[in-house]
Amino acid sequence: MSLAAAAGLAVARPAVSQALAAETSLEISGRISRQLEDLTQARRELAQVEQTISDQSLIIQRNRIQLADVSSLLSQAEHRHNDSLLLFSERLAAIYKLGDSNVYELILTSDNLAEAMTRLHYLGVISRSDLKVIERLKEEEAEVRRLHSRMDILKQESFQDIGELRQRQAGLKMQVASVSAQLERDNAALEKAWAREAEEEARRAAEESLRLDQDFNLLVGAPAIVAGSIPPPSGLRPSAIVLSGIASWYGPGFHGNRTANGEIYNMNAMTAAHKSLPFGTWLKVTYEDRSVFVRINDRGPYIDGRFLDLSAGSARAIGLTGIGHVKAEIYH
User: Fold this and answer.
1) Alpha carbon 306 to chain centroid distance?
2) Rounded mean pLDDT of 298-324?
């Protein structure tokens, strides 16, 4: 039996006598209801954990791709930075070769004005170039630091431990399996409890039916009863309200089941089913020249053209073997 069917079964089946059961169906049904709540909660939490693991795995995969890209960019930035450092070193070496000479020394030591102007121009170019190199070095150094920081963040996210989530996932799966197994056992126990209780109810109903039969002198299965030979139940009088129509009977296929008013159906008891008469209504049912008193405890019949469904015992009492036209007088 599926868990969903078990849940529906536990709710739909009515409570019955608990006298002989070691553990009643009501107690078992209550435990099943609590277990279903626990199972639903565990499955909901398991779905959330598995979704978190899936989301985290996607983030890790994406970060690993980004990490490879950033690593490539960092390598390029470091190469550019190293090239700039080398260029700056060469600039410094060139300046060093000029010694401590100032502008006046450059002019005085020149052979002519043209040479002096060339030296001054060269010195100016070096100064402007050095400034550009320095600025570029600063930018590249900042870029290298930024890429290093980005790599650190990506590494931390990429290698984030999801072991705890997986442990929680395994624990929840074990919990779901354990509760499901217990539900299967309890559903089997519930079926046995229902069988015990139904058997007890059937026994009690049979005893009650026998008592009623004795009280009203209704001998089930006896020869046809002549109209007027059976008195009405004590204290009841005819109401002069007479119903008539086609009647049928029902028996073995329903024996032991619940009637609409909650009783256990006894096909040998003097009862009947009607679509609308109040439960407990007594009728004097007459078929041809035979009559029997029956009590309404069920609903039906649900076949067009029929208005009354007699128990097998009451039908036999008036000789109704199939369907027939009867009169039913209400007693109150």
Assistant:
1) 44
2) 92
* CATH tag for 1-216 (out of 1.10.8, 2.30.29, 3.30.70, 1.10.287): 1.10.287
- Taking only the tens place, the pLDDT of each residue in 28-81 is 888 998 999 999 999 999 999 888 888 877 777 776 677 677 677 777 777 776
Identify whether the C-beta of residue 91 lies closer than 8 Å to the C-beta of residue 171.
Answer: no
Compute the distance between CA of residue 305 and CA of residue 273 in angstroms, rounded to an integer.
Answer: 14
Say if strands 306-311 and 324-331 run parallel, antiparallel, or are unpaired.
Answer: unpaired
pLDDT at 162: 73
Which residues have a Cβ under 8 Å from the Cβ of 183 and sit 6 or more positions away? 3, 6, 32, 35, 36, 39
First to last CA, the chain: 48
Give the predicted TM-score (pTM) of the model. 0.36
Q: How far apart are CA 313 and CA 210, in angstroms?
A: 12
Give the fold, CATH level 3, of 238-331: Barwin-like endoglucanases (2.40.40)
